[in-house]
Amino acid sequence: MSKTRKYSQDTILTQLGRDPDDYYGLMNPPIVQASTIKYKDLESYETKKGQKFTYANIGHPLSHHFETAMAELEGGYRAVSSSTGLAPITASLLAFLKSGDHLLMCDSIYPPTRIVCEKLLKKFGVEIEYYDPLIGASIKDLIKDNTAVIYLESPGSATFEVQDVPAITEVAKDAGVITIMDNTWASGLLFKPLAHGVNISVCAATKYIGGHADVNLGYAVADTEENYKRLKAAHVDLGHCPGSEDLYLALRGLRTMKMRLEHCAKSALKVAQFLQTRPEVRRVYHVALPEHTSHEIWKRDFTGANGLLSFVLEDAPKPAVAGFMDALELFPIGSSWGGYMSLLQPQIEINWRKAVKWQEEGTLIRLQIGLEDPDDLITDLGQAFEKFGDMK
């Protein structure tokens, strides 16, 4: 792309991660199925000089295109890619933590990240402290002499707390602490962590970047060459490697991501507003609602919303709750989000929180709003609420 012209996001998304001149004019980089890569001669094998790729699990043309695209999208130095969204999280944490270090971990994190902390990092001697995601600059009071990393996720999982990222990163930089942020909710588009002082931005491309519920892929972008080298070393040492077809599909999904996000965000707000009118709903969690705890920070720092929202269904016997979920026709139960279809997921992990214990009475349910007509989704929810009322 031209280095002298400033293009809009819409245009940039059509251009990232492809160079037709590399492939005889082909507009999209082809799928690369490879493991072994030929060296030019003994010197290139021994020194790696002049050898762009050495072994496919470390990098190949398609992973290079995808990582270049993600680094440019996020405004970072360079990126690494992995076969799942969780893989770059573990690689990033292990790259900057060692035994005896103190990790400040956001309490509203993606549940598998908490599992990594409890089952992996603690076993290796990392001290973990969970903090209130709304702590802001007061996080300075939690930093110790051995604090090595502050981990953020904004908006948070399930209840979508939006962190004051600039305030936290300013404190971290003053203390010489690395910051890592899960940016999956924004998918590199709605928020730019590195521009707000974060050192490493991680994202599950499985979600909105892939966009069609058929990709397992993640990436991490570093802000500097030094941090990239540490990230890449951990990535290689852990044997992380993305699938070529997933890389191809993610690059394809990237082209339409902004349009899909805008459609899903518009529909999600409409569904959220409908849920606010239902007597069976105790509370709705959606960043675009003025009533949301973090609405003002979201308006300040983000350029839009996505299709995620949660609500608390009033307390009722288990058969009534199950009856509500089972009555839905357009919301199958599923653990992911960011695809074309709507989904429902009970948020049972909410009780894992430690810094601020979950106090709501009722069942917390997350909805992923897909590309369906929102009026159809609302009708479906309405008929399920009626059946719920008859059963409770």
Mean pLDDT: 93
Characterize the largest beta sheet: strand count, sense, and whether it forms a barrel: 7 strands, mixed
Radius of gyration, taken over Cα atoms and rounded to an integer in Å: 22 Å
Q: CATH class of the largest domain, please?
A: Alpha Beta
Q: What is the share of helical residues? A: 25-40%
Instruction: Note poorly predicted spans.
Output: none
Sequence of secondary-structure elements: HHHEHEHEEHEEEHHHEHEHEEH
Rough outline: globular
Oligomer: single chain
Annotated CATH topology of the largest domain: Aspartate Aminotransferase, domain 2
How far is it from the N-terminal to the C-terminal residue, by CA?
59 Å
* CATH homologous superfamily (4th level) name of the largest domain: Type I PLP-dependent aspartate aminotransferase-like (Major domain)
* CATH architecture classification of the largest domain: 3-Layer(aba) Sandwich
Count of separate structural domains: 2
Q: Which strand order does the major sheet show?
A: 1-7-6-5-4-2-3
- Please provide the count of β strands: 11
Q: Give the strand content.
A: 5-15%
- Treating each run of at least 4 consecutive H or I residues as one helix, how many helices? 12
Secondary structure category: alpha/beta
